[in-house]
Amino acid sequence: MTVKNIIWHLHNVTKDERAKQKQQRPCILWFTGLSGSGKSTISGAVEQKLFELGYHTYLLDGDNVRHGLNKDLAFSDGDRVENIRRVGELSKLMIDAGLLVMTAFISPFKADREMVRNLVQQHEFIEIYMDTPLKVCEQRDPKGLYKKARNGEIKNFTGISSDYESPELPEIVISTVELSIEECADKIINYLKENRIIN
Amino acid sequence: MTVKNIIWHLHNVTKDERAKQKQQRPCILWFTGLSGSGKSTISGAVEQKLFELGYHTYLLDGDNVRHGLNKDLAFSDGDRVENIRRVGELSKLMIDAGLLVMTAFISPFKADREMVRNLVQQHEFIEIYMDTPLKVCEQRDPKGLYKKARNGEIKNFTGISSDYESPELPEIVISTVELSIEECADKIINYLKENRIIN
Predict the structure, then answer these.
(1) Less packed terminus of chain B by CB within 10 Å, N or C?
(2) Where are the domains of chain A?
(3) CATH 3.40.50.300 fits A12-194, yes or no
(4) Facing residue for A1 by CB, picked from B13, B69, B181
(5) Which spans in A29-142 are helix H?
(6) pTM for this prediction
(7) Min CA distance, B180 vs chain A (Å)?
(8) Which CATH architecture is the domain B3-194 placed in?
(9) Does B16 reach chain A within 8 Å, measured CB to CB?
């Protein structure tokens, strides 16, 4: 704006610099699975452990996304696709900000998860399949949604009246039936260490 | 899930904890002003300085938002409102993640800026008015947009064929005509220090 300004070198802070500052390799930990499969519980446990280790995280779920950014969306097929698209784009921006992003959405369709995978670099998308049998999820039924779905009060409910397409080659498979919460979380933390996402 | 799990206390990481970890008080620095008023330049300079001081930032602008999260939006009145709404919600999530968020959008209408202000806590929204006269912006015309707007090639161009509503009580007013880039950035950094957003 003045000659003086030309001397001062304007340098945009880069994704790599933000990542180095936080001493981590930003990525999305994409939790997918049926309602009641443990997505919120295990992602919450992983976030707690990462935070205690000094890493910089953020967890996106229905609670903080559906009531804000995506409050204009309902549950039609088109709106569900748009919901996941926005979560993907949001995660991409948070990766750019240097964060380890966790997402906890049923995200039942392969095509939608692949869409998000393709938004970011190959090593930045870590699909975590919560491999909990429908029977177990329905027994847990933490929000009473399966009961409503069986009664016909909720339509297009994943696992009951709408498909869940299991991931074919997820980076991590978690069995909440066989492992405790802490063991599930540790399995994910170990994956992150082995892949040098954290130290 | 098993009795063992009940012992392990699951504690969600809070906004305050993420903020403390980063040793800053998260907020939005909302830059508003005409095209060519210096929003990108000054917000970029502020981000650079904050990063060098060790703070955790992210800058949202047309480049990273319009091509991704908001790529389904055009420039109709409704889409412009939705654009700003989503940037606001996105900023709110990034505040929750503990970041100092900067946004560089013309955001010409008071109602839209107030909408964002009301999304977050009172001290979290810092409106920065880039008070550069239209004449100067038009002389700079960094992207050749004013020329196109004068030729009628661009319709509804802020300052030419669409209103810009100046903020009445912005937290910070920046005059890029009177100050150098570095002085503008320092004025904002000093505000952040005085208001204990950074140390």
Answers:
(1) C
(2) 12-194
(3) yes
(4) B181
(5) 39-52, 62-65, 77-96, 110-119, 134-140
(6) 0.93
(7) 6
(8) 3-Layer(aba) Sandwich (3.40)
(9) no
